[in-house]
Amino acid sequence: MKPRHDDPVTPAVERLTRDYQDTVLAPGRAALRRELLSHASAPSTARWRWAVGLALAGCVAAVVSVVATRPPPPLTANLEGVTTPVGERIATPADRSMQLRFSEGTSIELGAASSVALERLDADGASVRLSNGQLEAHVVHREKTRWEVRAGPYVVHVTGTVFRVRWDDTRRSLWVRLVQGHVVVDGPNLDGRALGAGEVLEVTEPVAAPVDSGAALPIDEPQAPVADAGPSPRPVLPARHAIDDTSWEKAARQRQWSHALALARQGGTTRLTEKLDAERLLLFTDAARFGGDTDLAVSVLEALRRRFGGHAEATEAAYVLGRIAVDQRHDLVRASAWFLTAYREAPSGPLAEESLARAMELEASRGATGPAASLAAEYTAHFPLGPHVARARALGGGAPK
Amino acid sequence: MHLVPPPEASASLERLKRGEPAARGAFFDQHVQLVERLVIHGMGPRPEVRDVVHDVFVAAYGSVRSFRGDAAQLGGWLRGVAVRVVRKHLRRERVRKLVGLWTEPAQEDELPSPEASPELRAAAWRLHRLTAQLPVDDRLAVSLRYLEGLELTEVAEATQSSLATVKRRLRRARARLLEWSSHDVLLCSWAEGLADEA
Question: Does B45 sit within 8 Å of A327, measured CB to CB?
Answer without folding.
Answer: no
